UniProtKB/TrEMBL annotation:
Gene3D superfamilies: 3.30.1340.30. InterPro entries: BON_dom, Transpt-assoc_nodulatn_dom_bac. Transmembrane segments: none annotated. This is BON domain-containing protein.
Length: 109
């Protein structure tokens, strides 16, 4: 049973990588993924909030993925108000608040 779960996780990772490879503007990011069943956690850093949001949407669209937790850090320099929020909440919180997506921590289908 555990072997089947590992095969499914590997298949999901392959599909995620293939989906991101089809979008050249997302290839320069330094990210990694943790797959746990139908949930995917995004880790690493990206250039800007747009890229973090685009990666999150792309991963959420992969068949079999029903939840995405976005823990990506934003590398780009931020304005003073965003820097203050970054200090208070961390990079991921700044990205989520800027994107303005409901719960902001998970995509669910």
């Amino acid at each position: 049973m555990r072997e089947l779960a590992n095969e499914q996780q590997e298949a999901t990772l392959r599909q995620i990588n293939e989906a991101l490879q089809r979008q050249p503007e997302l290839r320069s990011s330094e990210i990694r993924f943790e797959v746990d069943g139908d949930a995917v956690t995004l880790l690493g850093s990206v250039d800007d909030i747009w890229m973090a949001s685009a990666i999150e949407r792309t991963v959420a669209a992969v068949p079999g993925v029903t939840r995405v937790k976005n823990c990506l850090e934003i590398r780009a320099e931020l304005g003073s108000e965003a820097q203050a929020k970054q200090t208070e909440f961390g990079n991921a919180e700044v990205a989520r608040s800027a994107v303005g997506d409901g719960d902001n921590t998970l995509w669910s289908r």
